[in-house]
């Protein structure tokens, strides 16, 4: 899949959900993307949350990604690592063709994580924007589609993309609950400053029983079966100590529909009853390390005892 197509898919994660806002960062912020001649000519009138009528002179091109504010929000500046729910319209800067458009419904939105990632035009462009704002980003060819042509989507290698984004809500960048006392005999977890976990697996046989151990105890809403939980997680096989999934590596938080067959059964079991802001260590035996395989973004090892370290960042109802 080309990065162009991957970006469009990424904005379709939550087509029919309403967001509940979590923490929204601190007051100080240094933007990665500045306003410029290209972004300043993008017009997108209309109320926040309603589809804008986007207008700009054709062709519109930039060598460096730019961002301008269209509607000012009142929320706190969004920092690296925070997932946000947005409505978005994506257009080709050369001919104005619409490449992707949200439903702009009250119960809609898409999720992307702010900061350096595989989608730099947007994920870096949203840094220091505020919840409740509309921003216009003109992404360079490099930042939008790696400067590669995509004939199937009508994109030439030198096309810039125009993104008009309404920021509906923001979530925690990492678990921020109270530290809990470690449990002997379980994997040890140390955290980098940005929250990325380092996991040390004991040189012992894998436990046969499922366990869910709080590493940080949050005080937010309680996760229930059926919820769409916004999480960051790392998954490791106990036997070979190999990481098979890590949202920290991709730079993008994920959304899991807790309790459904698309989610590894042990992951759902470990999330139910936990509070937003918590970090939980899960040991999942093989009988619970299964799903229906519909989530093709992660390949779960077959017949293995799995270890998950999960940061619960929010719930979209």
* Count of β-strands: 15
Structural class: mainly beta
Give the termini separation.
Answer: 30 Å
Q: Give start-end ranges of low-pLDDT stretches.
A: 1-26
Helix content: under 10%
| Number of H- or I-type helical stretches | 5
Classify the oligomer. Answer: single chain
The major pleated sheet works out as:
7 strands, antiparallel
Net shape: elongated
Report the average pLDDT across residues. Answer: 89
What's the alpha carbon Rg, rounded to whole Å?
20 Å
Strand content: 25-35%
Question: What letter string, H or E per element, gives the SSE order?
Answer: HEEEEHEHEEEEEEEHEHEE
What labels would you give this structure?
single chain; 317 residues; mainly beta; seven-stranded antiparallel β-sheet; six-stranded antiparallel β-sheet; 9% helix; elongated; disordered N terminus
Description:
There is one protein chain. The chain has 317 residues and is mainly beta. It contains five helices and 15 strands. It has helices spanning 3-10, 120-123, 141-145, 247-250, 265-271; strands at 66-71, 83-92, 98-101, 110-113, 134-139, 161-170, 178-179, 188-191, 197-200, 211-217, 228-237, 243-246, 254-257, 279-284, 306-316. Strands 7, 10, 11, 12, 13, 14 and 15 form a seven-stranded antiparallel beta sheet that branches. The chain is elongated. The two termini are 30 Å apart.
